[in-house]
Amino acid sequence: MLGMLLGALVLLLLLALLIGILLPAREQVTRVELFKAPVAEVWEALSNLPGQAQWRSGLKSVQTLDDDEGLRWVEQPQQGAASILRKTKEIPLQELILEARQSGVLTTRQARLSNVPGGTRVTFTQTLQIAMPLRRLGNRMQGGVDNRLDNFIRQLRTKFST
C-alpha cells in the first residue's frame, strides 16, 4: 500500500515536472491604461519606489541600497521573500524600466508614459522569465504574469481614484 502511494506521488511529481518543462520559460504581457492624472503625478507614483509601500497592498517596505548609485532597492512583501529591484532605464516623465531578481525568477516591468487629453496614458509591458520548470507551473496556477501586472495596475488606479 505504501509502495503504491509513493509510486503515485512520484508519478504526480514527474507529471508536474513534464508540464513545467513544456511551458515557456518567458512570458510577456502588455497593458495600455489611462489615468485621469497629470504625467508628473503618475511618474512620481511609478518612480518613487519607497513611496509605493503607501499604496501597494501586500508591500511592507521598499528600501534603497547604499551601493550602485541609488539604482537598487530591496522590496519586502508582507509575506514571502524580499526581492532586489534595479532601475535599468529612466527617462523622467517618459519611460521607466525596472528589473527584479528573486530565486531564479527575472521580472522586468516597463512603463511608457504619454500626455493625452484628460490625463496620462501608460503602456505597461511586463516580462517574466522562470528557469525552473516546477516554478513555471506554480506561476501559471497563480495566474501568471497577467495576474501580477493587473494587480499592480489595479492598485495604481485606486491610488488615483481617491
TrEMBL record:
Pfam families: Polyketide_cyc2 (PF10604)
InterPro entries reported in the protein's UniProt record: Polyketide_cyclase/dehydratase, START-like_dom_sf
Entry coiled-coil feature ranges: none
Domain of life the protein comes from: Bacteria
Protein name: SRPBCC family protein
Naturally occurring in which organism (per UniProt): Candidatus Thiothrix anitrata
Record lineage: Bacteria, Pseudomonadati, Pseudomonadota, Gammaproteobacteria, Thiotrichales
